[in-house]
Amino acid sequence: LGRLQAPTLLVQAPLARDAAIAHVVYSPEVKHPVEVDSAHAEHLVAWLSKRLGASLKAPDFAAQGFDLLGGRLLPGRDGPVAQFMYQDGGGRRITLYVRRGQASERDTAFRHASENGVEVFYWVDGAFGYALSGQIGKTDMGRLADAAYKQLASR
Prior knowledge:
Blueprint: H1 8-11, H2 14-26, E1 36-37, H3 41-52, E2 66-76, E3 79-88, E4 93-100, E5 111-115, E6 118-125, E7 128-134, H4 138-152
Antiparallel strand pairs: 1-2, 2-3, 3-4, 4-7, 5-6, 6-7
């Protein structure tokens, strides 16, 4: 994969840009794609929740053909970020980037950005900013993002 270059849209959307970069860096990894694997999913979610200071959950994409591989802790602009990684039977990977929301992010609209074949759907909901990234078609990514949004929406 080449170096990710941010077009104007991603420059104006740091959440999407940061998520796309994290996806490009970690999704190709063969031996170490995640820090904690799915065999320890409960521990992973608890650990990342503690580090972000709020209760997280990893969406279930089994109905869309993607299984949780695991996740990792990442540094963010304003603190820790969680990344969950999923893979389908064909080896395609998607990542969900989760950070604590920022007061300046009042626009909660579901948005889309694309750069160098990486599709990113992102939104802010309550205390969190979410971005789902993948190098698969926009339509498929949209379905996955919709499933994530429905599972993660604040109640």
